[in-house]
Write a structure and sequence with these properties.
Blueprint: E1 2-5, E2 18-20, H1 23-30, E3 36-38, H2 41-74, E4 76-81, E5 88-93, H3 95-106, E6 115-116, E7 121-123, E8 125-134, E9 137-147
Parallel strand pairs: 4-9
Antiparallel strand pairs: 1-2, 1-3, 5-7, 6-8, 8-9
């Protein structure tokens, strides 16, 4: 029996997948537990429309991520922090500090978890940092840390 999953299922697939399941399993468990719906003509038409809308949204989000990547990679971000002799910072520059500077300069909110910083920046200089904007879209930005 063909069914459309409404919820993610560890063995069958993700929500929105069209799969084949045994009739008894589908009728007695998946459909009553609201994990799946039967793939009737109406449900298939609705599912195809949802998939089409989802693909359009995916293309638009991908396009925006590519534009943001170009925007971020075109300039470097300047962060000023207190530093001692030898270029050592008092404290450290974290991914949150970098996200705040991106918000300040570009008016773009980036989650600090998407900034790939192996360890906090503890010295002045120019650092190359990766930001995961979207699956398979990574921006490589330059962050210049200047001492006060």
């Amino acid at each position: 029996m063909k069914i459309i999953l409404i919820k993610d299922h560890k063995d069958l697939g993700k929500s929105g997948d069209l799969i084949n399941a045994k009739d008894g399993y589908a009728r007695n468990f998946l459909i009553p537990m609201k994990i799946a719906i039967e793939a009737t003509k109406e449900n298939l038409a609705k599912w195809q429309e949802e998939k089409r809308i989802e693909e359009e949204n995916e293309k638009e989000n991908r396009k925006q991520a590519l534009e943001l990547k170009k925007k971020l990679e075109s300039k470097k971000i300047l962060i000023t922090a207190k530093a001692g002799d030898g270029g050592k910072l008092f404290g450290a520059i974290t991914s949150k500090d970098i996200a705040d500077q991106i918000k300040k300069h570009y008016n773009v909110q980036i989650d600090k978890k998407k900034i790939d910083l192996a360890e906090n920046i503890k010295s002045i200089g120019i650092k190359n940092i990766e930001i995961k904007l979207y699956p398979k879209i990574v921006a490589n930005i330059k962050v210049e840390v200047d001492g006060e």
